[in-house]
Amino acid sequence: MENVLKFDTIRDYNNFNNQATLHPLVSIVDLSKADPRPARRLCYNFYTVFLKQIRCGDLRYGLKNYDYEEGTLIFLAPGQAIGENHEEIYYQPQGLALVFHPDMLPGTHLGRHISDYTFFSYEVHEALHMSEEERQIVMDCFSKIEFELKRGLDKHSKKLVVANIELFLDYCIRFYDRQFLTREVAHKGIIERFETLLNDYFRSENPQKLGLPNVAYCAGKLNLSANYFGDMVKKETGKTALEFIQLKVMDLAKEKISDRDKTVNEIAYELGFKYPQHFSRLFKQRLGYTPNEFRILNN
């Protein structure tokens, strides 16, 4: 069984890092206060954001090494794990961590919209790399959260703390938008690989064996998380990744419909549809005609 060190509460994580617990559901953790420790695989049952403030190699994810430069943010949703077990390797943690428990969110605007922050499901190698100015904004948000925690609990605490967490996350959406733009060349390469992946998929027997390719399948083949891939495709093309796949399917369908030796049902199965009626419904939705109407119009 995999050896994973799990943290269920904010207090547990604070104690692990020699940090005082000012609030049972949220904390700004100064990782430099922690004792040097062996490399371990860690799992957090709360939202975790790491701000790496210096270049260091103290985190590993999967089988890959990553260097985190000053101003890199890493996001983990509850239940995610990070790192690897190397008990013989000791390191001194650095940087800051914002941790907040899901129990902090019920009844708040952030609680109703936490799923909008899709970067919590990005892979570690899809981290947010910030400019110095952006890092200062993040530090200001962290300072406001810490200020409220140090004041002690009162009737305003939850509202102000959650509001500042939400403000920080909203800035991160803006910063990720900027990162998508500044990495436009690399992302165009991924879009081209996406198109090639789809072309190769439909030239193979995969549609009959596996069905239609979904977003998770394509993202996995491109070594990206589904959320990062979906957000990148949307920023780059203006379409969702699912729309991109569906438009490719429709382009192929139009070509196949011109072959009158095949029935609509046969074409649907060739493209990977389990049920022909689903193919006809999507065709009508995307093109405004049923497959048979399209065939007659292009006779």
TrEMBL record:
TM regions (residue ranges): none
Source superkingdom: Bacteria
Domain HTH araC/xylS-type: 192-297
Keywords carried by this UniProt record: DNA-binding, Transcription, Transcription regulation
A single GO molecular function term of this UniProt record: sequence-specific DNA binding
Name listed for the protein in its UniProt record: Helix-turn-helix transcriptional regulator
Organism: Mucilaginibacter ginsenosidivorax
